[in-house]
Design a protein that fits this description.
Layout: H1 3-8, H2 12-30, E1 37-40, H3 49-52, E2 54-60, E3 78-84, E4 87-92, H4 104-107, H5 109-116, E5 121-130, E6 140-149, H6 169-178, E7 183-190, H7 198-207, E8 211-213, H8 217-225, E9 229-239, H9 250-259, H10 261-274
Parallel strand pairs: 1-4, 1-5, 5-9, 6-7, 7-8
Antiparallel strand pairs: 2-3, 3-4, 5-8, 6-9
Helix pairs in contact: 2-5, 6-10
Length: about 280
């Protein structure tokens, strides 16, 4: 399926039909009837895939209808079916971002496809900059709410969508059972790829944001629209622009994740076991 075909799916119904088509092909290629959950591995989280569970099968997403290849370093178009305990989980080894010049429908196509495959829970992970002095680099933080500053939405038609509990209280309770000391915060999603300016950082703090990144919010909207529980987890990889901290680079961000691979993989594994 070409990118132009995906972009032509301008209504939510069109996009859902394309995701359903992709799900049918994915199930056929993976020889599975359904999956129980989906995990999207963001920047810095790629190393958690292997220790997360028992790998069953892999598919290249770009061979399925509607998928385009990620452009961010570390993000792969590979989809991996894994067993975590008694649950079959679809793991996305990367994601697409709005800053690639693609539409919101393309950004959320993977999440919609996973839900059409049967996923009842979606775990979205990302790398984020902290806006708070008490969030340390290398610390995972649960997302309790978000601020969508991308000027986009994957919903092009339909009724108003209630986002009051977009990040499932049930799944956050499960995460706190696994990691009792884990903090929570509000995630601000920007379009990117440019980082926030010092003035924008001050504005974000005033708005109530604790973290800032370039993903997750559109995927969350799409999943909530489909009635699926969402758990969002950010890995704090750097300090937001204009504050004292290490120089921000893609490699530095990835190194933070690499240093916490075992801890992050164990946390995700235990969460999925309890879903």
């Amino acid at each position: 399926m070409s990118q132009s075909t995906q972009d032509a799916a301008t209504t939510t119904d069109d996009a859902q039909a394309l995701a359903e088509e992709a799900a049918e092909e994915l199930r056929r290629r993976m020889n599975v009837d359904s999956i129980d959950a989906a995990v999207v591995l963001g920047t810095g989280w790629g190393g958690t895939a292997s220790p997360l569970g028992e790998s069953e099968n892999e598919v290249v997403a770009t061979e399925l209808p509607g998928f385009v290849s990620p452009v961010a370093a570390e993000h792969s178009p590979t989809l991996r079916s894994m067993w975590i305990g008694a649950k079959r989980v679809l793991v996305f080894m990367g994601r697409n971002h709005l800053y690639q010049g693609i539409g919101a429908a393309s950004v959320v196509h993977g999440v919609r496809t996973a839900i059409h495959c049967g996923a009842r829970s979606v775990i979205l992970t990302n790398a984020a900059a902290t806006l708070r002095a008490d969030f340390a680099i290398g610390q995972p933080v649960l997302i309790r709410d978000h601020i969508n500053l991308t000027a986009a939405s994957p919903l092009e038609s339909g009724d108003f969508l209630d986002m009051e509990e977009a990040y499932s209280p049930r799944l956050r309770d499960i995460a706190r059972e696994v990691a009792p000391s884990i903090a929570e915060g509000v995630y601000a999603g920007l379009r990117g790829p440019n980082l926030a300016t010092p003035a924008e950082v001050r504005m974000l703090r005033t708005s109530g944001a604790d973290l800032v990144g370039m993903s997750t919010v559109l995927e969350t909207i799409a999943a909530v629209d489909m009635g699926t529980d969402v758990l969002g987890v950010s890995l704090v990889t750097h300090v937001a622009s204009g504050e004292a901290g290490p120089t921000v680079s893609g490699e530095a961000v990835r190194q933070v994740g690499a240093q916490r691979t075992d801890e992050l993989a164990s946390m995700l594994h235990q969460i999925v076991l309890r879903l």
